[in-house]
C-alpha cells in the first residue's frame, strides 16, 4: 500500500498541536499498523510521558466532561498525582493507564460531589413542615366551601377517598354518571377560583 502523504504534511502519528480541534485524518488516508508495540529501551522520563500522553488524555476528558476547563483541570490533577508518586514509579505497572484511571476517577468523584451538593441544596421530599399541612388543609376546606354541597361530596368521595363513581353513586343515592358530572363541574369551579 503506497503512501499518499505529501512532503511536509504531518502523518497520523505525527504530533500536531495540543488543540482538541487538531487536524483530522482524511477518510482515504488509512495507515496499516503492524501489531508490534514499540517498547522503549529504558524507563521514560516524566517529561516524555507528559509529552506522549497529555494530548490524548485531554481529548478523552474533553469528550467525557464536555468542558475544556474541566478536562484541563482533571488532566493536571492526574499528572500531579503521577508526579507525587514518581519516586515509586516501579510500583506503577503502566503509568499511562494510571493517568487515565486517576483522571476518570476524578470525573466520577466530581459527579458524586455534585449529586451530594444538590441534595443539600434541594429540600428533601420527606422533610415536611407540619404547619404547611395545616395551611394546605385550610386552603382545601376554603376552596371546597366555594362549590355546591353535591359537587363537594362527589369530589371528596372520588378524589380524596378514592371511591369509584359507582361506589360514590351508591353512597350518595344517585346514578354513577351524575357523580362524574358533579365531580367534573366541581373541578372546573375549583380551577376558576
Mean residue pLDDT: 75
> How many β-strand stretches?
0
Structural class: mainly alpha
- Helical content, roughly? 55-70%
- Taken in chain order, the helices and strands follow as HHHHHHH
Q: Given the C-alpha coordinates, what overall shape results? A: rod-shaped
Rg of Cα set: 34 Å
User: Major beta sheet, specifics?
Assistant: none
Beta-strand portion reads under 5%
The low-confidence runs, each spanning 5 or more residues with pLDDT under 50, are 1-5, 20-26
Helical segment count: 7
Distance between the termini: 80 Å
Explain what this protein looks like in three dimensions.
The chain has 193 residues and is an all-alpha fold. 61% of the residues lie in helices and 0% in strands. The protein is built from 7 helices and no strands. It has helices spanning 46-65, 68-84, 95-121, 130-145, 149-160, 165-172, 176-192. α2 packs across α3 and α5 packs across α6. The longest helix is centred in the middle third of the chain and has 27 residues, at 95-121. The protein is rod-shaped. The protein starts with 45 loop residues before the first helix and ends with a helix. Residues 1-5 and 20-26 have low confidence and may be disordered.
